[in-house]
Amino acid sequence: MYTVLIVEDELLVSAGLKSMVHWADMDMAVIGEARNGKQGLEKYRQLKPDMILTDIKMPVMDGLEMITQIRKEDTETRIIVLTCYEEFDLVRQAFKLGISDYI
Questions:
Q1: Pairing state of beta strands 101-102 and 78-82?
Q2: What is the C-alpha to C-alpha distance for residues 65 and 70, in angstroms, rounded to an integer?
Q3: Which of 31, 34, 79, 86 is within CB 3.0–4.6 Å of 39 for a Cys-Cys bond?
Q4: What is the largest CA-CA distance in the chain?
Q5: Residue 54 near residue 99, CB atoms below 8 Å
Q6: What does each C-alpha distance from 56 to 14, 19, 22, 89 come to in angstroms?
Q7: Tens of pLDDT along 26-85?
Q8: Phi and psi based region of residue 75 (left: phi greater than 0; alpha: psi -120 to 50; beta: remaining)
Q9: Closest CA to 54 of 42, 71, 39, 37
Q10: C-alpha 26: how far from its chain's center?
């Protein structure tokens, strides 16, 4: 089973991802959540998930900085960025950091 960490500052988005996606049907399990990039980095180091779903714009540490820090330690973990259309320049930057995809 693949493990997933959700890093999202908006509680409703995080709750929606957890409840609306049928994780078990895809042989996946959400093993942790974080509300900002700093917490996400700490959870990543603690849990070592197979995949991270992350927002880009968050308080304390944004998603791009979190991705930069993770990529210094690990190039294998899949990272998918959650964003809106207006933030595509940030998504482009995230691809340069080695993300797998975006939603």
A1: parallel
A2: 9
A3: 34
A4: 34
A5: no
A6: 14, 21, 24, 11
A7: 999 999 999 999 999 999 999 999 999 999 888 999 988 999 999 999 999 999 888 765
A8: alpha
A9: 37
A10: 17
Q: H-helix or E-strand containing 49?
A: none
User: Residue with structure tokens 């197979």?
Assistant: 50
Q: How confident is the model at residue 89 (pLDDT cuts 50, 70, 90)?
A: confident
Round to whole Å and give the CA distance between 48 and 87.
28
Q: Which residues pair with 53 in a beta bridge?
A: 6, 80
DSSP designation for 7: E
List residues bridging with 99 in a β-sheet. Answer: none
pTM value is 0.87
In whole angstroms, give the CA distance from residue 27 to residue 2: 6
Helix (H) and strand (E) counts in the chain: 4, 5
Hey, what are 94's tokens?
A: 């995230």
- The closest of 46, 44, 39, 103 to 76, measured between CA atoms, is 44
